[in-house]
Amino acid sequence: MSVSAAENAVAHLYHSWITGQVLTLVSRAGADAAEAFVFRLFRTQHHEKFLGGLTKLGLDHLPHAVAAARYHYFSNQLGGVQVEYLEVDERKAWIRYPPPRWIWQGSAICGIPSNVNRAMLHGWHAHNGVTLNNPRLGFVCTKTTVDGQPGLEGYYQEFDHVLAEDERLQFRPEEDCPWIDPASLPELDSNRWPEERRAKAYRNYAMEYLRNGLPILVSLFGPEQALYLGRLCGLQIGMHCYREIARLMQVSDDSPESFAQLLAALLIGSGDTVTRIGVDLEQNQWRIFQEGSIHPVVRQIWLSVYEGLLQAHNRFLKLNLDGQRITIASTTTSTTTSTTTSTTFNSR
User: Fold this and answer.
1) Full-prediction pTM beyond 0.90?
2) Other CB atoms closer than 10 Å to residue 278's CB: what's the count?
3) I need a labelling partner for 62 at 20 to 30 A (CA). Which of 50, 129, 181, 338 fits?
């Protein structure tokens, strides 16, 4: 199993997971709850990523409207999102996400209320001017796919006046993004962004949503409700992603050993350090979260997606969590003997 295959599998799993988590909230907790979650998630992502990302992408010297639009163009492109860009002048630049929308993949687009989709724009796009200390910079959204329009599109505009809070995000569906020539789209510097770095950025893009999203879930809904909402989603996503992940990882049978190999590859593909001895694994680094800095429920929710994978791999096997140790045990018994094969994962 190559690292690139594992990274692709991880990206697919976490991509599906964040989409599923929003849909779980819409269907189980209501659109307002999902809106609050999406707003908090994208505002947190913004505070963590935007300014540092401008520097990493070499955009911090550009006019603010251009820098903001190019940031969204390049950062989303690195994450596997289809996106277009058009610079009008130094005070106005368009970005356009043609369908299919990355975060509302597949038929999920039909289950996303307008207010939930707008929460993403309020959380991130409307705050770029604030972060850049430019009170005249805002975002004008002209189309949204969740409302049946041909893509999410809009432009960053540096206005002539200081914007009130409710002016930082505006909606003007009567306007249309001009045609964008694909040959005109800017490209990343391949020297600064070689293939290996791009592959890790692609993987990290999806993982970062869950790294921030699961603690936010606990903060908004409390441990008990978050465990229910998060675990249900994780199980469903794991089960429904299994076939594609098994194909990517070339899993050929339903044995405990095959799943141990699959899980080890996914953890390594996530950036963890794993030692494998036979069918035993020791997870020496849990990259996505820092132990001790998160609520214990987050680890249980995180485990659920792997439980879902295992249920689809072999429904007679079970993952058990005991502190930092995860075991795979058979649940199959007979009248004469019981199956004792287990796989142990020590995480520290």
Assistant:
1) yes
2) 9
3) 181
